Amino acid sequence: NFCLPCTNKEDALRGQRARENELRSLESNLPYEGLEKGKQPNRYFPSNAIKTTKYSLLFFIPMNLYEQFHRLANLYFVGLVILNFIPEVNAFQPEIALIPICVILSLTAMKDAWEDFRRYQSDRKLNNMPCFIYSRKEKQFVERHWKDVRVGDFVKVVCNEIIPADLLLLYTSDPNGVCHIETANLDGETNLKQRTAVSGHPEFEPESFNGILVCEKPNNNLNHFKGYKPDKQKVGAGIESLLLRGCTVRNTDHAVGFVVYAGRETKSMLNNSGPRYKRSKLERRLNIDVLFCVILLFTMCLIGALGHYLWLNAMPVVPPYLVPPTSGQLDRPSLTSFYMFFTMIILLQILIPISLYVSIELVKIGQIFFITNDIDLYDEETDSRIQCKALNITEDLGQIEYIFSDKTGTLTENKMVFRRCSIMGTEYPHKENAIRLAVLDEPEAEEEVIFNQHAQPLPTRWSLDSEEANVEDTHGHGSRRRSKVTGNAQSDVAFSSPLETEVVPDGKLFQKISRTSSGSLSHSQKTDAYLDFFLALAICNTVVVSMRNPKRHRTFTEDSEENFQPSGQTEGVDTTGLQPCSPHPPSLSDEPALTSDNLRYEAESPDEAALVYAAKAYGFTLLSRTPDSVSVRLPSGEVLDFEVLDTLTFDSNRKRMSVLVRHPITKEYVLYTKGADFAIMELLEHFSGNKKNIATVTQRHLDCYAKEGLRTLCIAKKVVSEAVYKRWSVDRKNAMAAIENRERLVMDTAVQLEKNLTLLGATGIEDRLQENVPDTIQALREAGIKVWVLTGDKPETAVNIGYACGLLEDEDLITCTNILDCTLEEVRRYNADPRNVDTTQNMSLVIDGLTLDKALSPDLLDRFVALVKHCRAVLCCRVTPLQKSRVVKVIREKLKVMTLAVGDGANDVNMIQAADIGIGISGQEGMQAVMASDFAISHFKHLKKLLLVHGHWCYTRLANMIIYFFYKNVAYVNLLFWYQFFCGFSATAMIDYWLMIFFNLFFTSVPPIMFGLMDKDISAEMLLGVPELYKTGQGEGDYRFTTFWVSILDAFYQSLVCFFVPYFVYQDSDIDMFTFGTPMNTSALFIILMHLSIEIKSWTVVHWIIMLGSVALYFIVTLAYSAVCVTCNPPSNPYWILQSQMEDPMFYLICILSTVVALLPRYRVCHSLSSVGLKIFNCPEFWGVFVSTF
């Protein structure tokens, strides 16, 4: 027994070391099934049960209080409550002081408890989901729950089932070892991903799996995994063999995997970092003003303590109302004054608005409700509305000064349309396809357009006659159908709208292919450059081919032993009329697969889809793809089955991808490569004569494509000798099986093979601008917002898009070179010229990634920032994701401006997270940008209303509400402060303590919240029509240093009026303290509410109900309290005070006179400002701008 604690400690240390090791050795749990936990080999790793709750039922109260006391404001008020329990310094009954802070803490605790309870329900539902784990005793897969899964188990997943843990794929029902998964729950992408079973397990049995599996420590990289099985021959495994928790199995009957990570160590859970917390600019300013209020409070308390000391020393004898303590002697005046300092803090504590933070949270929740329910920000096409993920920075939307935007998918639709191509130096403009696209741009009734909805079926044998017939039919009105261009919103497959899938072949190229493909193809024809070009388009990609007929429905399976044998297939039982999953990709032996219309292509990028559909338009139809083969049907109808030897996937460093195949006719090893023009051109073999001329002409075509705004790709090939391939294959396998430096080794092997390429041609793909992008950019620029575009495209493409979207204008001085100093000096000379006063130079900057990298170096950074300050637009081309985020950080930190970044792809995530506000567009490149953003929209045009209207409203409402809160508390607490001058600074209050608490907690708490939620200083139509109005929120905005202190001074003035009007009225009378304070308290209510009435710009029924309701609540509660409270606050007695006051006409006179005199200056100032505003609105120049906007 004595050694048991030591043993447990040693075991815990071993477990910690096992979890922290860079490499893990995992064993199968089957040999240890039924043994106690201490003998399990994987016992140190967490189970699959998850717990996202923050609290437990037993410790909720202490843990929640600990959490809330991280807020300094809560600690401040709790400290005052504790002070009030000390007899020497208490200002009123200690129990009363507890009420405000208890109410605030209770409301927050209730909110936290509800949120945690919802997390608990979600955890319980997830942990109890069913799954199938292999049992050695049962000799089959048995049904268990997700929480029962452990590292080292064998788990079986069936079609349309969610994967319970991170599984290394060992076996699938597909004969090619392929499993298709949908990662929408992780990254939002609905296109299928292909996963391949680890080699060496064609007929897999869980009990036959022996040895260990070595893998890396868990990390949150969804696209990376390293592992290997140290058998006789080291077999490596990468992300292509890992099934991630949360993904859904599609188009695969069933699959079996080995659990490598479970529970909180799975990649999906490691990526679940919870909501992001950003502090808004207004919140940072608010904290400074709270500090000013603390200084003001201490100053007032110091005055009170000093005044009390002077008052005590001025007395010749001790007055009878100063009762000594039990010792019989009074404390010294200095000690009494010291105590009085803390007593005054307790009395004047409401100078720090305790309810302000809760009110701000409520207002922000309401603002988000209004934003998300704006019908103008709803996209009917995709049935999606704006998403607000950051709850605490809505007001920052009204202060943006710089916008950094991606191009592809953000300004453009990311619907790639095949437009032109160049093959072996000959350019094919595809004029017929251009006519089809031009028809799409023609305005039609009810926004309908005319085009051929379905592609014409390709003939088995091509001929010139059939080509002419197709072209004529395509442009004939008889074959046209009317259809709305709805993109791919309702499609099951991404990048599959008619705009993208239908390509009208070029007549000249069509004839060339037709002649080449006619008859039985010879050996030489099989290697023709034109055929190679289209074969490269068809097979050099990662497109997944599946049947068009089956939908992705839930497959219901019979719960029987036969259905869960390790190597058996699970048959779909259609109990509801739903289509069962197709367990295999389309097979060439299946008759429907030979029909092109039955195929659907699921691509990871729109570029890949566009090229595959272009190849299909010329008869090169991609029929099927497995890890080891790819089948293409030629225009002649003949099918070629290529053996896939390796796929060198695309990465941002190489800027290209390649597929190494064995040609079915020539048996040659052929490498097909596609990528960015600069990445391919530098890898071409050294040539001369005709081949050199082809490269030169192709480059000229690429430059023309870029100037037209097309996205360019180069296509190349290489024939690899068998000896070279065998040597390279050994290096490749070693690199794939490596753990250390695996990425570098894999990239080195790819670069090693991608040399001495032969150029086949190039393609130009159009990415059309989104709707209303030029109008949106124009409005944003008029609003004083500078728009930058950061893209990876060529400078020519970026400049063309810049002109098309209105970012660049014809009169702009475009600077594209790296002569930084000369350009900056020219700008300075322009600004120094007295003739250019109050004018700005129309200058835009276009800079590429290499130059940008130099400009951001420490010695040039300041000069670069000085230059871009004077640019009305900046286009950064050929930039990497890291450069995007760095540019945003530099501008935000150097210029101290509010920034917004908007993008739609994974390469925009860094930029989005670096900006003050990140906005993701739910486009066609998945949802990584949306998941990393603070707000998510469907189209770029939504930025206009989001910023100009909702941003302006959110900022002005919240800024005015916060200023009003400070004013309200200072005005009310000063009444107590002025009274101290007439009561010996004894911290006595002339208002009942309960009514003081009710005043801030109930009587005046709802109106400012309503003000922050619903006030509209300017209508939405006016804000959209005159974008210049947005400038009021930029820079310091409405919430300035001067605005704050003017409101504080106004509060001091109003409190003086509210106090001294009743003071002079009742001077030399014998009224009691509460009779003096009651009309003052009532006047304060009217003044504070009428002050808010002056500030409200748009009145609704809700405003009237809340304002009148607050007044009614005050009188009802105060009358009831005065009627029933006889000894509520001994020795004082507020009984029947208000009833007596309401019988005296003097009470009404005081209330009216105090309210009018107190609010008269503010009313006159607001009236003067309104008159100035009317003059502005009557100005012809103003209406000229307004009319020109529409």
From TrEMBL:
Taxonomy, superkingdom: Eukaryota
Keywords per UniProt: ATP-binding, Endoplasmic reticulum, Magnesium, Membrane, Metal-binding, Nucleotide-binding, Translocase, Transmembrane, Transmembrane helix
Chief location category: membrane
Domain P-type ATPase N-terminal: 41-96
Region feature (Disordered): 462-493, 555-593
Reaction(s) this enzyme catalyzes, per UniProt: ATP + H2O + phospholipidSide 1 = ADP + phosphate + phospholipidSide 2; a beta-D-glucosyl-(1<->1')-N-acylsphing-4-enine(out) + ATP + H2O = a beta-D-glucosyl-(1<->1')-N-acylsphing-4-enine(in) + ADP + phosphate + H(+)
PROSITE patterns listed in its UniProt record: ATPASE_E1_E2 (PS00154)
UniProt: ATP binding residues: D406, K407, T408, E608, F650, K674, R711, T791, G792, D793, R878, K884, N907, D908
Domain called P-type ATPase C-terminal: residue spans: 930-1163
EC number: 7.6.2.1
Cellular component per GO, a single term: plasma membrane
Gene3D superfamilies, sorted: Calcium-transporting ATPase, cytoplasmic domain N (3.40.1110.10), Calcium-transporting ATPase, cytoplasmic transduction domain A (2.70.150.10), Calcium-transporting ATPase, transmembrane domain (1.20.1110.10), HAD superfamily/HAD-like (3.40.50.1000)
Cofactor(s), by name: Mg(2+)
Catalytic residues, chain numbering: D406
Binding site for Mg(2+): D406, T408, D904, D908
Name recorded for this polypeptide: Phospholipid-transporting ATPase
Originating gene: ATP10B
